[in-house]
Design goal:
single chain; 167 residues; alpha/beta; Double Stranded RNA Binding Domain; Arc Repressor Mutant, subunit A; 2 domains; two-stranded parallel ribbon; globular
Length: 167
């Protein structure tokens, strides 16, 4: 495992890779990484700014924030339950500049809108935000709802996708 930090218009992001795939993107402030595991118990390895997966992730995120990239092409390995994996796969089907409600996302995975709460919980546990676009999920009435990175970041990402570059 290895990690690096990217400066971005939504604050610093910690990018984490393992076995040649991106496994996490964390918003600052970050859990402490050191000889002891952080409170979440997830090992992030050592900082490696030259790791090829992290270099490519940083390049694609930079292009995204500059309004030059709409679709990420990265090797991804998010850790989660089979249901979470299903939801995260469905999130990748929400196109750039589009949004979907939790109920709509539930329908996309073959569930009834009653599963929207479970979908919301899985959405909130997405370990690779931005690349797996959980920010594109909104409330049924079109309002912004929870986002692990905060509603300000969510609004910034949605604005980028409808108005253009942040850099």
């Amino acid at each position: 495992m290895s990690w690096t930090v990217l400066d971005s218009p939504i604050d610093e992001l910690r990018l984490v890779a393992h076995d040649d795939a991106l496994t996490m993107i964390e918003f600052s402030p970050f859990p402490v990484v050191g000889p002891d595991l952080p409170a979440d118990g997830l090992d992030r390895g050592e900082r490696d700014d030259a790791d090829p997966v992290l270099v490519e992730t940083a390049a694609q995120l930079t292009a995204y924030f500059a309004g030059e990239l709409e679709d990420f092409d990265l090797p991804l390995a998010p850790r989660g339950t089979p249901f979470q994996q299903t939801v995260w796969t469905a999130l990748r089907g929400i196109g750039f500049g589009e949004t979907a409600s939790y109920g709509e996302l539930a329908r996309r995975i073959g569930k009834t809108p009653a599963a929207s709460r479970a979908v919301g919980l899985a959405n909130g546990r997405n370990p690779i935000p931005v690349v797996i676009p959980c920010h594109r999920v909104i409330g049924a009435n079109g309002t912004l709802t929870g986002y692990a990175g905060g509603l300000g970041r969510k609004q910034t990402l949605l604005d980028l996708e409808t108005r253009g570059a942040l850099f």
